[in-house]
Write a structure and sequence with these properties.
heterodimer; A: about 270 residues; alpha/beta; six-stranded mixed β-sheet; three-stranded antiparallel β-sheet; 9 strands; B: about 300 residues; seven-stranded mixed β-sheet; globular
Chain lengths: ~270, ~300
């Protein structure tokens, strides 16, 4: 892992870029989210940890406006956006996602068209946002792929012919192609072998350092969260049980569940 | 003075093979289609005495619009005299009392499979295009419900991506017929399998175009003076078929859409695709004085 990963946590500003408050969601008899609130500050990496079924992926889907809660509000501190993003219609949500929110899924099949070219996958995001110049599409796709350390000679290969690590890099390039205000990462390294995982995390860390991209990283891997996150939110049974600076949470966990998680890892 | 004195004498209006309720539904759907240009309207496609896929959609529209005073022209890939075109034209005439014609200028209703005539259509004419597959998103989204949702959201990113992919792989857009076009800046439609040569004829045209797919049960329309813009990248111009320099072996005209005729020696000969336009050209060459209308293209360039 690179030296960048050892860097001290960045300063947190007072005005949050992303603010979710009082989110609740029930599927049948299952309470997936129960009065969850979260704040993400500009340039920081918020890690969300928790066991399977704790609600972290549901929360991320809401951050990506793929889903609406039964109750709660969502605000992004960007010009010309309403106070509650859940009031946006489907078209407005799609345009906001295309322009301001990037996402990398654990499963590349969810984020990529596997039989289209890798550059085409990146270009799709630009096309949805309204870019109609072929030369610009090529150039921007190449820049984004380069930034995610994808080998440019293979930029027109379809993801289905690429390794898992390369597929994640294409997803990452697609997510950052339009310089999003926030980058959502849903278990981006799960399923990759350790060396590839380290390379992908290095790339993410470098991007975060260079571009000051605000990130929300969901993972059940405490090592990944510890490497990347400035702040950590621990979820269980759809509730936030602990929240704080990463070092604080990992070194001095307060909640019994967090203690269990940290000790299980150690 | 009573109301009946002021109105025309009532007479049953039921000819043209289809029953009145079928016609009523089709008329309503046509009005909807005209109101939302390029948007596909579902309808209950009826049985007509030709097989599905042979122009049942176009035939139902023509049967709904036809009246005894109509003059109908039917073309099949530009030809008035193909078996299919002749059969449909005679059927229309027999069930409605309408006149038949081969001349584009004389026709009030033109039902066509895969071509738009070379002579410009006027505001008094209606072009009915037979459409095998009305869904432009079929190639990128096989689920019909999702495709309809994508139309509702104007979500055409994947259509553009398809063009991008072709540019990457082949250096040019490989679509020939059915080139997708944005109608009125809102809905992407497939303009039926007309060649790229013909797509631009629909842009701001004086005439009404109704496109109907009988098997797929969809109607859509391009009203007069409506923008029809093929999907093209800003820096990659739209190209029509390279027919501008070709000369018709029979009529001698140059600069129109041609049919390629394989020759015995392996070479290719060419004949103008719009058969009656070719007949007029032959007549003019032989000293006749046919009435030739203004054409969309002149010297191979869109006028």
């Amino acid at each position: 892992m690179s030296a960048l990963m050892k860097e001290a946590p960045r300063l947190v500003r007072t005005q949050p870029l992303m603010e979710l408050s009082g989110l609740s969601k029930t599927y049948g008899n299952v309470r997936a989210l129960d009065d969850v609130s979260a704040r993400v500050y500009p340039g920081e990496v918020l890690g969300i940890v928790g066991e399977s079924g704790s609600g972290k992926s549901t929360l991320l889907r809401m951050m990506n406006l793929e889903e609406s809660p039964d109750a709660g509000r969502y605000r992004l501190d960007l010009p010309e956006l309403p106070e509650d993003l859940f009031t946006l219609d489907r078209f407005e949500r799609r345009m906001l996602r295309a322009r301001r929110i990037g996402i990398v899924y654990q499963n590349p099949h969810l984020g990529l068209l596997m039989k289209h070219s890798s550059s085409g996958n990146v270009a799709e995001r630009l096309l949805v946002a309204g870019e109609r110049r072929f030369a610009v599409l090529r150039e921007k796709a190449q820049v984004a792929l380069e930034a995610s350390e994808f080998p440019i000679p293979r930029m027109d290969a379809p993801p289905i012919e690429l390794s898992g690590g390369m597929q994640q890099r294409v997803q990452l390039a697609k997510a950052i192609a339009l310089e999003p205000a926030v980058l959502l990462l849903d278990e981006p390294t799960t399923g990759l072998d350790v060396s590839v995982q380290a390379l992908v995390l290095d790339t993410l860390k470098r991007l975060q350092q260079e571009r000051r991209i605000t990130m929300v990283l969901v993972s059940h891997d405490l090592g990944v969260i510890r490497t990347m996150a400035d702040r950590v939110m621990v979820m269980r049974h759809g509730r936030v049980v602990e929240e704080g600076l990463a070092d604080q949470v990992f070194q001095d966990p307060q909640h019994a569940y967090t203690q269990q998680l940290v000790h299980a890892k150690l | 003075m009573s109301l009946s004195d002021l109105t025309g004498r009532w007479k049953a209006f039921s000819y043209g093979f289809l029953d009145p309720s079928a016609k009523r539904e089709l008329r309503r759907k046509m009005i909807k289609a005209v109101s939302v240009p390029g948007c596909q309207m579902p309808y209950a496609s009826r049985e007509v005495p030709i097989a599905r896929g042979w122009g049942t959609g176009g035939l139902q529209v023509t049967l709904t619009l036809v009246k005894p005073s109509s003059t109908v022209k039917v073309i099949d890939q530009g030809a008035d005299d193909s078996v299919n075109a002749a059969s449909i034209r005679r059927f229309l005439s027999r069930v409605s009392g309408a006149s038949e014609t081969w001349d584009t200028l004389d026709a009030t209703l033109i039902q066509s499979r895969h071509r738009i005539p070379e002579e410009k259509l006027s505001r008094d004419q209606i072009l009915i295009l037979q459409v095998p597959n009305p869904e432009p998103l079929r190639g990128v989204e096989p689920n019909m419900s999702t495709a309809r949702q994508m139309h509702a959201d104007a979500d055409y990113g994947r259509m553009w991506l398809q063009l991008y992919e072709q540019m990457v792989r082949s250096g040019r857009v490989m679509l020939g017929a059915s080139y997708p076009a944005m109608v009125n800046g809102r809905h992407v439609m497939t303009p039926s399998p007309i060649p790229r040569w013909d797509v631009k004829k629909l842009h701001m045209a004086e005439h009404l175009t109704i496109l109907s797919a009988g098997r797929e049960k969809r109607i859509f329309a391009v009203p007069p003076y409506t923008r029809v813009e093929p999907l093209v990248f800003d820096d990659v111009p739209y190209k029509v078929e390279d027919h501008a320099h070709l000369t018709c072996a029979r009529s001698g005209v140059t600069g129109y859409f041609m049919n390629e005729i394989p020759q015995e020696d392996g070479s290719a000969g060419y004949e103008v695709s719009d058969s009656h336009f070719g007949i007029k050209a032959i007549d003019a060459r032989d000293g006749g004085t046919p009435t030739v209308g203004q054409t969309w293209y002149r010297n191979g360039e869109l006028a």
